[in-house]
UniProtKB/TrEMBL annotation:
<dbReference type="Pfam" id="PF00534">
    <property type="entry name" value="Glycos_transf_1"/>
</dbReference>
<dbReference type="InterPro" id="IPR001296">
    <property type="entry name" value="Glyco_trans_1"/>
</dbReference>
<protein>
    <submittedName>
        <fullName>Glycosyltransferase</fullName>
    </submittedName>
</protein>
<dbReference type="GO" id="GO:0016757">
    <property type="term" value="F:glycosyltransferase activity"/>
</dbReference>
<keyword id="KW-0808">Transferase</keyword>
<feature type="domain" description="Glycosyl transferase family 1">
    <location>
        <begin position="204"/>
        <end position="351"/>
    </location>
</feature>
<dbReference type="GO" id="GO:0009103">
    <property type="term" value="P:lipopolysaccharide biosynthetic process"/>
</dbReference>
Amino acid sequence: MKIAIVSFDFVESSLCLARYLSEKAEVTYFVITSPTRMNQAGCDLRGQMLWPGINTLRLQKYHNLNEYLKECPLKVKAIHYFPGHKLFNKANSLVTKRVIRQINDSDFDIVNIVGQTNQLLDYHKGLKAPKVHTFHEIFNHALNQPLHSKLLNYCVDTECGVILHSYFNYKSFLEQFPDFDLVRLDTIPFGLFESYLSYYNESIKREDSMVLFFGNVNQYKGVPVLIQAFEKLNQKNPDIRLVIAGKIKPNLKSELILNLPGNAKIIDMFLDNKDITTLIQKAGVVVCPHTSASQSGIPALAFLFGKCIIASNVGAFSEVIEDGKTGYLVTPNNVDELYRALNFVFSDVDNINSIENQVKQLLIKSNDIWRSVAEQTLIVYRKNIKRINNA
């Protein structure tokens, strides 16, 4: 089978999938880039000069990619665009047309498009091969409402297959589109985000007293709840410190700073792959105090480095975190429950060690997990190729 994966964001999961698929099929992985989109999640592409259109990546120019894809037959290419400014809209439109023509000329059996942006609509409309689309979110948490996008609606209204990563998203999708043909809908989880291992620094040791929140800070991420729980914890254990790392929405920043305890620190900046890896390596515990969520990649990243996670029991967190075994699930928006979970974990370092020993088993099994994911994905591809070609 000849497979193309076209990914706009979500490289941390789609690249791993492509790597393991390439053990069973001929796979070309296309990652969409621009001058401001070179440092992708799990993959730094700032290694060679890229020109608008399709660029074959010389892996020796990319330490991260070269390490992860060593002895792997996967073909990796960048679809490079001009900066996303209206002055370049016409030029970028021409780039897309040329790219679509080149992909069509390659006669792929199936194209798996990955991403949330409406910019991918042109690929759906122009590519001739059977297509499936992988959505990581079908709910707009910032607006607290189902995702309404031209891209999602187009995929629903055409013959395109749809892949989701959690049963929670599967149920939410069918609530939004109750008449959708189930033959076209599949749920396939992802494994650990292995490409981050190339950023691992063995000289960085765990700081048992560090609580970490990382990622963009939005209203639904529940950071104010974490701060209140940490205040209670800090009164009992003043050695514990909190790090909140990630770009903060401007309307939240002043509130967070005003209520920040003395032993807490805010790192308000875009975190690159090395920053994220360093912070996770240092953390004693990673916390996800979300008030709303559907699909989060944080467990797949934190588990990669053997970390205990305390997360709100919302969305798909319960599908990836075994409560009391690989982490702890708490009621969302419940300061006291989050405090009790933190207090239990930090009351004895053996509590952290016990969880980490369980989590490390996931890393040991990571290859097998991804091979299973790849096999499930191949089954979905074959099903959709047959269905669409016979339509």
